[in-house]
Amino acid sequence: MPTEPARGAGPQHPLVPLLQALTELPGPSGREHAVGRRVADLLAPYVTDIRHDALGNCIALKQGAGPEPRPRLMLAAHMDEIGLIVTRVEEGGFLRFAPVGGVDARAVLGQEVRVHADAPLPGYVGAKPPHLLTSQERDRTIPLEDLFIDVGLPEEAARRRIPPGTFVTVHQPLTPLLGTRVAGKALDNRASVAALIEAMRLLARWHHEADVYAVATVQEEVGLRGAMVSTYRVVPDMAIAVDVGFGAAPGLPEDQVLAMGQGPAIGLGANIHPRLHGMLVRTAQQHNIPHQIEPLPGSTGTDAWAMQVVQSGVPTALVSIPARYLHTSVEVVDLEDVRHTARLLAHLAASVTAADPEGWRYDLA
Amino acid sequence: MILRELSELPGVSGDEHRVRARLWEAVRDRVDGGRVDALGNLITWKGADRPGPKVMIAAHMDEIGLMITRIDKDGLLRFRKVGGIDDRVLAAKAVRVGPDGIPGVIGLKPIHLLKDNEAKKAVSHEELYIDIGAASKEEAERVVRPGMYATFATAFGELGDGLVKGKAFDDRAGCALLVELLALDFPFPVYGVFTVQEEIGLRGARVAAYDVAPGLALVLEGTTCADTPGTDPHGQSTLLGHGPAITVMDATHIPARPLVDGLVAAAESAGIPWQWKRTTFGGTDAGSIHLTRAGVPAATVSVPCRYIHSPCAFMSLRDFENTRRLLAAFLEDVPRVAERLAQGSA
User: Fold this and answer.
1) How far, in Å, are A170, A187, B242 from residue A335 at the CA level?
2) For the whole prediction, is pTM greater than 0.90?
């Protein structure tokens, strides 16, 4: 386990290189291959089997030491990020685009991007300049359809090299901030993927009875699709989705946000199996892992929502890493929250026995 | 390439000293002398005792940026804009704060939590803040104080077809051009002036021009280039890749005809592509220089830059080189231009 870093360790925090490797790779929904390959490489030393399914989910198994049939625990974090897709090359070589996932037009203007053509092309998102706008126009967000991407290529070269359907991601190197916080793109949800990998690293050295599946899912941002089919394949006895939650910041409703730096949030609500929730809370308490409870009425909007209704139904839980400025290129997480999330997942996985899921479904006389 | 360094240095209006130090290092062996005035302008000269009109060539060192005004109780930094920035480009950007370049980001309320119509309204800079990762006011106060400046964290780079991208091309492009020009030798006195506080009202150039008292002045700029979708042809001030832009009129200045004619003649005879700047808004240091003392004939020559006053601008290296060639050719003609100026005022 990494040693306790002092506050202010910033760039030296042991998780910085891992998050750097994961966030700086492009992986918009439907084009997660590069991330999936890297995740598989990173997980390989700690697991017994890895496969990629038809949609691109990366499914790793660390076999448990318990007697067969062993309980199956699935830990899932989506590895896709929101992005853009080129729809048209305009006169002058400028690219028009559509969103992939929940793209906020307010966060796109003035972003540096990579256009994933035959090679990753640097580009910039521009709009009609402000001095040519009426004051009414200036008070409004520029809608996505009025923005364009400039890659600085002449029209002919742009048409030849960038067919419609080319994917685009924002370009933002991971930036260590003060203390143990970092800013960057795709921390939604590579921060959770990092926690998953770190949890498997811890678990690799521990005795555990259950078969533990670590799954990096695809296409969460466009409809929880990867979780649906990967859960069908695994058929877990219990499943935990790991995602980012809204970190507290000015202007946000105080009852809907998570405190930054106070540990992972353990969800509670209809999407969460009460027994699994209880196991997570007890695990956190036993191992002195800072945590918070996140009340979640209705849909959690995460992979857990899809996983819960696979086949005959799966007991699910949600663990959330507090993150600020979601769906922008400057998402912020506290690496200590990531580390504690990994600890929570690893300790939970190590504690699961065949007795646990028993009685979670039962026949009546 | 010095433009890379100049672009990445922080130098918001009022805080130009790092840019000034780098420029002095670059030109000290090319000039006879230099001084820094009370506002922070860097005034350099060569051939001051030569006959002929004193030629002042000016480029401003300052860039648009932000100033920290308050540290909130949660360690987040409130800020105001320095110079003309469209509020809408601020959201979701990485910045560097203060003399040590503390990394920070300007966040944005997540799209998931927006109420009706909130997504359609431009976010004012007053609602935004810089997050440097501080968990408390005390932690932020250890490294940041109100009054510190912040700039966009934009790396210089090459892209596309002979283009470069970076922050502060307005007007580090002009500064880089002036560094190049000061390598030349002239038979008349030349004052290379790197000015401060252009972006907040052409203020450095006013006092520098008073001090230099030039016979004629050239202002070098990175200017707007709206040759992008959604802009009518008549709103396209310049076109990227079409050569240096010569100003006929802007909001602060109507350039002296003999200088404009001289610039066009120099471009034509040397076969250098050039263009008129085709919009009349905005201003340059020429606005204050030409009103100095009893008046100074002045003109503005610009390198077209897309997306200026935003976190990142694009410039064509061919335009930069052609602007340098045009200015060098014009400076060779200065004695003839000076004659025409003298005839005009006689």
Assistant:
1) 22, 11, 49
2) yes
Interface of A with B in 238-277 (CB under 8 A): 246, 248-253, 256, 260-261
CB neighbour class for A364 (10 Å; exposed up to 12, middle 13-18, buried from 19):
exposed
> Which of B86, B132, B165, B316 has the most A C-beta neighbours within 10 Å, making it the best mutation to test the interface with A?
B86
- At B8, list the tokens: 């990445």
B97: nearest Cα among B18, B150, B133: B150
Which 88-107 residues of chain A touch chain B by CB within 8 A?
90-92, 94, 96, 102-107
> Is the distance from CB of B220 to CB of B245 less than 8 angstroms?
no
Interatomic CA distance for residues B240 and A252, integer angstroms: 42
Q: Is B178 a residue whose pLDDT tops 50?
A: yes
Q: Sort out which chain B residues have CB atoms less than 8 A from A148's CB and list them.
A: 228-230
Cβ contact B164:B318 at 8 Å: no
CA distance B305 to B164: 10
SS3 B144: coil
B183 neighbors B27 (Cβ within 8 angstroms): no
Using the Cβ of A125 and the Cβ atoms of chain B, whether some distance falls under 8 Å is answered with no
CA distance linking residue B299 with residue B71, whole number of Å: 43
Give the residues across from B316 on adjacent strands: B163
Which B residues in the span 67-96 are in contact with A, Cβ-Cβ below 8 Å? 72, 74, 76, 86, 88-89, 91-94
Catalytic residue among A81, A198, A209, A220: A220
CB pairs under 8 A between A and B: 204
Query: Is A218 exposed, middle or buried (CB count within 10 Å of its CB: 0-12, 13-18, 19+)?
Result: buried
> Does B103 contact chain A (CB < 8 Å)?
yes
CA end-to-end span of chain B, whole Å? Answer: 44
The label of the residue with tokens 């790793």 reads A60
Domains and CATH numbers, chain A: 7-81+185-351 (3.40.630.10), 83-170 (2.40.30.40)
> Among all residues of B, which ones are annotated catalytic?
198
Give tens-digit pLDDT for A140-192: 999 999 999 999 999 999 999 999 999 999 999 999 999 999 999 999 999 99
Say yes or no for a CB contact (<8 Å) between A324 and B143: no
Structure-token match 């060779």, residue found: B332
How crowded is the C-beta side of B257, counted as CA atoms within 13 Å? 5
Q: What is the pLDDT of residues A11-53, one digit of tens each?
A: 689 999 999 999 999 999 999 999 999 999 999 999 999 999 9
d(CA A214, CA A202): 13
Q: Angle, nearest 10°, between helix axes A187-203 and A16-23?
A: 130
User: Radius of gyration over alpha carbons of chain A, in Å?
Assistant: 21
